[in-house]
Fold this protein.
Amino acid sequence: MIPLIILLLVVAVISIRNFGRFKVEMWQAMATGALLSIILRQISIKDAIFSINFEIIFFLFFMFVIGSAFELSGLLEFLSFKVFKNAKNVDTLILQMIFVFGILSSIFTNDTIAIVGTSLGLILSRNHKISPKLILLTVAFSVTIGSTFSPIGNPQNLIIAVLGKVPNPFVTFFKFNFIPMIVNLIFTYLILKLFYKNEFHEEDLTHELVEIQDIKLAKIVSFSSIILIILILAKISIAYINPSYDFPLVYIAAISALPIIIFSNRRIELIKEVDYKTLLFFISMFILMRSVFLSGIVQNTIKSLNLQEMGRISIFITSILVSQLVSNVPAAILLLPFADNSIQSLMALSSGTTIAGNLTILGAASNIIAIQKSEKVGHTITFWEFSKVGVALTLQNIITYSVFYKVFLK
């Protein structure tokens, strides 16, 4: 019970954050929770160390290095012009961002696009005087929804595809999620416009080409990007040929980042630019979630729900709710053994644990990455500002999947 109380206190602190003059950062709240669970002997130091998923930590580290190289070289701002120069107004810009980031997240994973997309989005926010909050929500929602229709779009999809032995995973995920994804991305635009209607002015946007600041670094990061794309495509091809074989994303990130670390004379600066607060947040989250898992409370609750007797929509909604408590990747791991092995149940589980990221900040790792990255440059969005829009979008997502399951997948 103690780990659950600690977790609920951490969630409460993150949802409030401002205590008079004192502002608590998300990583501070999570780190305090993890430390308390160790001090109160709810988890041993050995278990705490083994609870940390270093594959995810190092994946994020190397992707942060690549992202920093994009920013410091000026290549990211150059690309933002090339990609979005045809957006004539805020409407078309937001719509383009939603679909570009959404589709890319299905290939490069939602966490990767959250890193690059947040930086790119904030550049667009600054250049066109658009609310950073609108931009952050655009990035967060689009990478969450876009990652649903690919088994490599996010970690929980990959876990379910591999451990659930999903046959022909790319085709299966596409069949169950592509149409809902398109519908949900369109509604993301409509809901954002509803909540931020004052930002959607009719004035024409002026796009100015910005010269690349560090040509040498830009060439190196371009080479790294080519390696990244080739390795991602290789991973997709391998998944088609032998779905049971996994080429870990951390290897892809490490190999892609190596040219930057080896050949750039700004390597120390780039490594210093890594978002270590976000890495500490995830390390702490792994420890705290493990202590909650060891308490047995979540497992007993899940057992009592009898997932195997549930319909697809019930599994979908349960996955969303459990993900708010323990985050989506742990939720997928916890729920998978209790679900039956039917493709319908597995796809409902993957969709639910992914769409959970739209409900609250804590529902997805990509949300944390986007918000922590934005806070480095002085922008943020509160728990309640996120949830206000997130609740509306999640309800729409539930309706979309309910209709899709009943009409198209009888």
Summary: The chain has a mean pLDDT of 88.
